[in-house]
């Protein structure tokens, strides 16, 4: 059963099993702050794409974005806050600014950092040149690691990194790009393995640096996104079956890979949030969620 993501994060950051819960009234808020390091795509991008040379398709710095909470466009692909904003608030952290925001050297990274970029995928070639790919996001994280070490020393910075939570939303654009560009890459199980292989490599690198607690979103039904439905108007439900099948395979393999890493990597803890089921629940029963 899908759980609210902030509860999932609290569970993977808990000091003991008694802090894990799945009913809001039973939850205990963490006694001390835990830094958040955020990687991925538009679901987590709080405005990094405002500061790169990209297209308006990969930016959200105009109306109606931001109108219901911030009262101005911030670069978030939402009219309000993102998942990671709610998590930060519940954890008593400030809303993390975009890593690329001007004056970044003046910001404190003790609470974490947000490197996410709308349009980014696990593969470097996904919308290459228009996004901050995952390898670049990892490089930015390593800059933060160096900043922390220079500020507070090796021991204290290592403690922040080991106690931190690393959140990922990535993969969607790797598959979307196959259908909305002139890509010659085949939509095959081998392609899914490439995507997850790159994601795994990033996670293992962060683990090597000291990260131990990770949170992931699986993929929604990509073939039913409006941008892909128009590519298959003749089908019964309008969805693009090839894209949906890739997302299903991705979700299965992601679960398997994370299970293996939990056994193989020392201290590795993870939570895999069923974003797919959660979105479907809201689509099927909108009145339960205020719509």
Please describe the structure with a list of short key phrases separated by commas or semicolons.
SGNH_plant_lipase-like, 5 strands, 5-stranded parallel β-sheet, single chain, 291 residues, globular, signal, SGNH_hydro_sf, GDSL esterase/lipase 5 isoform X2, alpha/beta, Rossmann fold
> How many distinct folded domains?
1
Helix and strand sequence: HEHEHHEHHEHHEH
Dominant shape: globular
For the sheet with most strands, the description reads:
5 strands, parallel
Quick one: CATH class? Alpha Beta
Instruction: Kindly estimate the percentage of residues that lie in beta strands according to DSSP.
Output: 5-15%
By helix and strand content, what is the structural category?
Answer: alpha/beta
* Cα-based radius of gyration, to the nearest Å: 19 Å
Q: Could you give the count of β-strands?
A: 5
Give the second-level CATH assignment, the architecture.
3-Layer(aba) Sandwich
Helical residue percent band: 25-40%
């Amino acid at each position: 059963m899908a759980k609210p993501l902030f509860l999932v994060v609290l569970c993977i950051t808990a000091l003991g099993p008694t802090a894990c819960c799945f009913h809001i009234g039973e939850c205990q808020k963490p006694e001390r702050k835990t830094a958040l390091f955020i990687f991925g795509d538009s679901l987590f991008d709080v405005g990094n794409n405002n500061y790169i040379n990209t297209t308006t398709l990969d930016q959200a710095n105009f109306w109606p974005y931001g109108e219901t909470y911030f009262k101005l466009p911030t670069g978030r692909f939402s009219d309000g806050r993102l998942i990671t904003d709610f998590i930060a608030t519940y954890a008593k952290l400030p809303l993390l600014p975009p890593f690329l925001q001007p004056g970044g050297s003046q910001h404190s990274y003790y609470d974490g950092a947000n490197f996410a970029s709308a349009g980014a995928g696990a593969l470097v070639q996904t919308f290459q040149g228009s996004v901050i790919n995952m390898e670049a996001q990892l490089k930015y994280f390593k800059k933060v690691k160096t900043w922390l070490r220079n500020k507070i020393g090796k021991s204290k910075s290592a403690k922040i990194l080991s106690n931190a939570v690393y959140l990922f939303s990535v993969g969607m654009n790797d598959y979307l790009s196959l259908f909305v560009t002139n890509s010659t890459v085949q939509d095959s199980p081998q392609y899914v393995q490439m995507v997850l292989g790159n994601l795994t490599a990033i996670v293992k690198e962060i683990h090597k640096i000291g990260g131990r607690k990770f949170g992931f979103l699986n993929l929604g039904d990509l073939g039913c996104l409006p941008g892909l439905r128009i590519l298959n108007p003749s089908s019964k439900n309008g969805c693009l079956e090839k894209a949906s099948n890739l997302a299903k395979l991705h979700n299965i393999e992601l679960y398997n890979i994370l299970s293996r890493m939990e056994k193989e990597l020392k201290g590795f803890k993870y939570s895999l949030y069923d974003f797919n089921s959660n979105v479907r629940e809201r689509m099927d029963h909108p009145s339960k969620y205020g719509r």
